[in-house]
């Protein structure tokens, strides 16, 4: 390989193990992790990522919106505000999801306008001159972690964005000789429909400061968000307009003094024009957010002092540190994909509490966090699989504890006393299924992460798993499954509940709470009640115990037996006991045949165009959605790890590219990206809570994982290239590894995982039963 330009320290440390020579002295070094990230990846196709400025886990995601005029049914493609193939930019708003499968946010849109004519409606992409939006060219864009820039062609304005933890900063360079204006639109949103904005306010505090709030009804009901905005130049004039009532307030002309400088407006459709006259230098606009009140936003504004360049430099340093946790040597495209994936995994769960500790909880009341920064944006159905487990390896224990304390605080604040399901800015959406905050907490606890009250956490987990009205848990507890005639998506809910129950049992067992452990180990076996041995699929049952008919394992319909999938994807979801599932399927050979049949299925006669989340198909394997993410690794559980290696090659080559359309499906708050980070390193957490990572195959030549405890875990792949995709042998710290998994403890102890790659599959490595990953029914003890 020609990609051996690795750190000198690593070459020294591993020189006895590495057979290839280091790069020659005249070979250019690889770009830094920071410079390798491409935030444009996923902004096209169905990745739903945004290219704008954000700090690691930042409250503010300041990014361009190319269109917010979509209707509810057409907003899916603009869930992140920006689509790479759109020809115009409508403005820059302060909140965005990274890769969500649903749209919302897009709060407080700002658009710079130059000249004498200022329109207060956005207009349309088909006719940009009909509104304040502007055309732009991708050639003028710069996107880096924490920084975005673009030239707005219609106004000749250079727009630059950066962000800190709780602030976003705009810098606009206006053309000489033309008046500078900003349009501040409080009407726009990424989930538009009549009545979306319930109420909004805007207040001019002085000639450099504006504050306001708005209350919206969208994906999250009754959401309140406030802002504080400060300008580097004084206002020359302003206009606040409520377009619903057609009432205009014309403010002062010239620098404000005394009571003339104060203006206030309220209503459902507020838009503002802010005038600055001709400017001799760029205009900076610093914005802070708060879900509490205007005072909270002003406090957050003061909490991060400094101008544009100061905030940008601080955030760049944060990103350099966060991305430097993994050092990667690989071919260019692989390196770009992996570092961008790592970047995407560090955007959520985002800070949602104010600098003074206050936050708005799921009860819509204001609370105060005790010694931690409250976090939200929990896409838990997606992220419990790999995103949250990755954070236990790449983030300090204090960050992971902060995440868990935020989950527990939300449970305490919840009117129903349960943990978050899909929450953002403290507000619950009730989207997706399961109670997947449970495995996040259990996995962290079992890995030795402290900083939270374990007994309080276990009680919260049990409360969520026994709240009968949620997802028909009442029938699940009574019948041992969720009946489809009582609850939609019953087959999926049964198997997901059973996994969550197993993680409760594991944590309770570790804590010595034997009664809880026994109860939930029993519930962890409830997946059996939905498995049909005649068809070999997990299926939905009715209350009378009969499977629902007719049955088509390829059918995908929302509200049917399965969640965003069908029997092919969901019949593999028994991560706590894959051995028992495969035994029920007829044994190893039958399971291998069924796995092969899934990947090789001919979809030519199927039409899934009605299902937005079904993308990235390889047969009936659907990489663009989460239920399939662990399936390629399941060959390890049936003694055929070479087939895992083959399928992973197939997936990585077809599902990830260093291009705007380079993600096959929604990144889902980092889950698609976390899958790639783990898979690139050669292992994956199939069963969070098992303390094991299942070995696949590496896609990097070398990597160093800098662990939170100060140690290093090194991955080396000798002979890796396209012609050598199979694992020939594996050693751990120089000793042959004959099993297809490594443990969390082995990683945290530091050391070297060394692969030797070859052209043909090794059909003997890690094939016997003792070499296979954890399953509940075959584990030595529970």
Task: Outline the fold blueprint.
Elements: H1 8-14, H2 33-36, E1 53-54, E2 61-65, E3 88-89, E4 91-93, E5 109-114, E6 134-135, E7 142-144, E8 147-152, E9 157-163, E10 167-173, E11 179-185, E12 197-206, E13 209-216, E14 223-231, E15 237-242, E16 247-253, E17 263-267, E18 270-278, E19 283-290, H3 294-303, H4 308-323, E20 326-329, H5 332-345, E21 350-351, E22 358-360, E23 366-368, E24 375-376, E25 378-379, H6 380-383, H7 387-394, H8 397-413, E26 422-424, E27 427-428, H9 437-446, H10 454-465, H11 473-479, H12 490-511, H13 514-524, E28 531-532, E29 537-538, H14 567-570, H15 578-584, H16 588-599, E30 617-618, E31 621-622, H17 641-655, H18 671-681, E32 683-684, E33 692-695, E34 702-706, E35 712-718, E36 726-732, E37 735-736, E38 741-743, H19 744-748, E39 751-758
Parallel strand pairs: 35-39
Antiparallel strand pairs: 1-2, 2-4, 3-6, 5-11, 7-8, 8-9, 9-10, 10-19, 11-18, 12-13, 12-17, 13-14, 14-19, 15-16, 15-18, 20-34, 21-24, 22-23, 25-26, 26-27, 28-29, 30-31, 32-33, 33-38, 34-35, 36-37, 36-39
Would you kindly provide a written description of the structure presented here, covering whatever features stand out?
With 782 residues, the protein is of the alpha+beta class. The chain has a nine-stranded antiparallel β-sheet. Strands 20-34-35-39-36-37 form a six-stranded mixed β-sheet. A five-stranded antiparallel β-sheet has the order 5-11-18-15-16, with no helix packed on it. The protein is globular and about 75 Å long.
């Amino acid at each position: 390989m020609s990609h051996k330009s690795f750190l000198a320290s690593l070459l020294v440390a591993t020189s006895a193990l590495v057979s290839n020579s280091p790069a020659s002295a005249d070979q250019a070094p690889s770009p830094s992790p920071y410079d390798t990230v491409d935030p444009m990846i996923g902004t096209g196709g169905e990745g739903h990522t945004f290219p704008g400025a954000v700090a690691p886990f930042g409250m503010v995601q300041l990014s361009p919106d190319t269109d917010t005029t979509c209707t509810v049914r057409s907003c899916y493609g603009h869930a992140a505000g920006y689509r790479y193939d759109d020809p115009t930019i409508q403005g820059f708003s302060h909140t965005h999801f990274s890769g969500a499968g649903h749209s919302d946010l897009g709060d407080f849109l700002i658009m710079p306008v130059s000249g004498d004519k200022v329109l207060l409606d956005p207009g349309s992409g088909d006719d940009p001159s009909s509104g304040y939006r502007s055309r732009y060219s991708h050639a003028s864009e710069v996107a880096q972690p924490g920084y975005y820039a673009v030239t707005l062609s219609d106004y000749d304005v250079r727009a630059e964005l950066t962000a800190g933890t709780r602030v976003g900063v705009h810098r606009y360079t206006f053309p000489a000789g033309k008046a500078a204006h900003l349009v501040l639109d409080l009407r726009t949103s990424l989930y538009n429909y009549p009545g979306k904005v319930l109420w909004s306010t805007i207040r001019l505090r002085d000639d450099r400061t504006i504050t306001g709030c708005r209350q919206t009804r969208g994906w999250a009901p009754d959401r309140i968000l406030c802002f504080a905005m400060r300008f580097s130049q004084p206002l020359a004039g302003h206009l606040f307009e409520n377009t619903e009532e057609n009432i205009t307030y014309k403010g002062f002309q010239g620098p404000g003094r005394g009571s003339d400088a104060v203006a206030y407006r309220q209503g459902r459709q507020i838009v503002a024009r802010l005038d600055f006259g001709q400017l001799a230098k760029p205009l900076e606009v610093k914005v802070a957010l708060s879900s509490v009140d205007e005072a909270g936003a002003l406090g957050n504004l003061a909490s991060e002092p400094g101008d544009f360049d100061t905030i940008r430099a601080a955030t760049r340093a944060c990103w350099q540190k966060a991305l430097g946790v993994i050092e990667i040597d690989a071919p260019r495209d692989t390196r770009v994909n992996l570092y961008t994936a790592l970047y995407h995994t560090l955007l959520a769960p985002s800070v949602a509490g104010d600098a003074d500790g206050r936050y708005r909880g799921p009860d819509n009341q204001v609370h105060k966090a005790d010694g931690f920064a409250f976090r939200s944006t929990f896409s838990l159905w997606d992220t419990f699989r790999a995103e949250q487990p990755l954070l236990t390896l790449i983030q300090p224990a204090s960050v992971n504890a902060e995440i868990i304390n935020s989950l527990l605080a939300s449970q305490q604040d919840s009117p129903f006393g349960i943990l978050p399901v899909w929450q953002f800015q403290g507000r619950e959406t009730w989207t997706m299924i399961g109670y997947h905050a449970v495995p996040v907490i259990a996995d962290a606890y079992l890995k030795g992460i402290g900083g939270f009250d374990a007994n309080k956490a276990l009680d919260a987990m049990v409360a969520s798993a026994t709240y009968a009205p949620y997802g028909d848990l009442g029938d699940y507890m009574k019948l041992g499954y969720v009946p489809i005639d009582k609850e939609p998506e019953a087959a999926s809910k049964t198997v997901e509940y059973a996994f969550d129950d197993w993680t409760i049992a594991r944590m309770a067992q570790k804590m010595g709470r034997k009664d809880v452990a026994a109860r939930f180990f029993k519930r962890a076996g409830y997946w059996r009640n939905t498995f049909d041995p005649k068809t070999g699929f997990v299926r939905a049952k009715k209350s009378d115990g009969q499977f629902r008919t007719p049955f088509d394992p390829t059918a995908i319909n929302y509200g049917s037996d399965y969640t965003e999938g069908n029997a092919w994807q969901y019949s593999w979801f028994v991560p706590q006991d894959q051995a028992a599932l495969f035994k029920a399927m007829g044994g190893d050979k039958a399971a291998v045949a069924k796995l092969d049949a899934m990947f090789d299925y001919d979809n030519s006669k199927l039409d899934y165009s009605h299902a937005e989340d079904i993308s990235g198909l390889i047969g009936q394997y659907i990489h663009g959605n989460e239920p399939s993410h662990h399936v390629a690794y399941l060959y390890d559980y049936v003694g055929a790890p070479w087939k895992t290696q083959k399928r992973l090659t197939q997936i990585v080559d077809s599902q990830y590219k260093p291009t705007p359309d380079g993600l096959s499906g929604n990144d889902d708050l980092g889950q698609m990206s976390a899958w790639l980070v783990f898979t690139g390193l050669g292992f994956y957490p199939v069963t969070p809570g098992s303390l094991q990572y299942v070995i696949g195959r590496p896609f990097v030549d070398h990597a160093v994982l800098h662990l939170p405890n100060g140690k290093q875990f090194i991955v080396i792949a000798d002979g890796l290239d396209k012609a050598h995709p199979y694992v020939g042998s594996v050693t751990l710290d120089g000793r042959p590894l004959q099993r297809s998994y490594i443990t969390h403890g082995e990683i945290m102890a530091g050391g070297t995982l060394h692969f030797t790659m070859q052209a043909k599959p090794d059909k003997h490595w890690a094939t016997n039963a003792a070499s296979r990953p954890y399953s509940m029914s075959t584990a030595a003890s529970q």
